[in-house]
Amino acid sequence: MRLSWDGCPCCEAQDPGSATGGIRRRGLLGTLAAAPVLAPVLAPVLAPAIARALPAGLVQGGLATGGLAQGGFVAGRVAPGSRVALDGRALRVGRGGEVAFGFGRDHGPEALLAVTPPGGRPEQHPLGIARRAWPVQTITGLPPAQVTPDAEALQRIGAERARLAAARATDSPRTDFIAGFLRPAEGRVSGVFGSQRVLNGQPRQPHYGYDIAAPVGRPIVAAAAGVVTLAAEFFFFGRLVVIDHGHGVNTLYAHCSTIDVVEGEAVAAGQRIAAIGATGRVTGAHLHFSLSWHQVWLDPAPVLPPAPLG
Ligand SMILES: [Zn+2]
């Protein structure tokens, strides 16, 4: 018997070696709003509650943040000319002081942000990274071939994984991320970031995307301005597009029916780039949307305009 589900199991093959397991609690895929509408306004990257949790000096320094939590994305500005490092890793700082960073699904409870203003002394800001409880999604009754790809498929998947990693390694001086993100499609949220997949009793990679179920052909738009770094057809993802938004920040759009852009093309926020489809490993038409920073998958939900209730 084949059970249907709305999400996509594609993510499980993306990141070998990233943490699986560790999720004991059965959560709910709840809090999913129905019938979102494409929001015409940009979501503020700043989540006020998170900003209040930041060291006062950092907020006064103009750094707006949106996610001191597992899966969280942080973007904002420091004084132009500052040097910024996260856990000892130097971050790009834009000419206007733009910086971006994020925390993976399984990030530990602490991080250290060091900001050195021009001509000033280094300021150390210990950051508390909130732990999140990830839902568990158990799917049984799948055909074994769908759970475990054959050798030929595995070879193809490996090559595609490398190609995707190369696209996602793009680290450009663009600062498109600072303007925030649009919802990339209208539709029902059918899958959330971080959920642990258990297919036929086997724990698999967590789901690193945000799924929007919608009819085939509905437009998919760029969540932010940027440059297309990948436009291809993959085994798991089907037809997909990756867009670089600068400083290692990129978004991914998968399972498209058609792709309207080519690699190297500059796109505007809200520009149509593809259409909803059911290509790749899916059980129904939807968009699998991902946000990442330097190969770290992040939760898109907090940076998108809220899904309208319907
Ligand atoms: Zn997905």
Give a short summary of the structure.
With 310 residues, this protein is mainly β. Helix content is 11%, strand content 31%. The longest helix has 18 residues, at 151-168.
Can you put this structure into words, describing what you see?
The protein is mostly beta strands and 310 residues long. The chain has two domains: 2-24 and 133-303, Glucose Permease (Domain IIA), CATH 2.70.70.10; 48-128, Sandwich (Immunoglobulin-like), CATH 2.60.40. 11% of the residues lie in helices and 31% in strands. It has helices at 48-53, 56-60, 144-147, 151-168, and strands spanning 73-77, 83-86, 89-91, 98-102, 110-116, 123-128, 136-139, 188-191, 196-199, 202-203, 210-213, 219-221, 226-234, 238-246, 249-256, 258-259, 266-267, 272-275, 286-293, 296-298. The strands form five sheets. Strands 8, 11, 13, 14, 15, 17, 19 and 20 form an eight-stranded antiparallel sheet that branches. A four-stranded antiparallel sheet has the order 3-2-5-6, with no helix packed on it. The protein has a three-stranded mixed sheet with strand order 7-9-10, with no helix packed on it. Bound molecules: zinc ion (ZN).
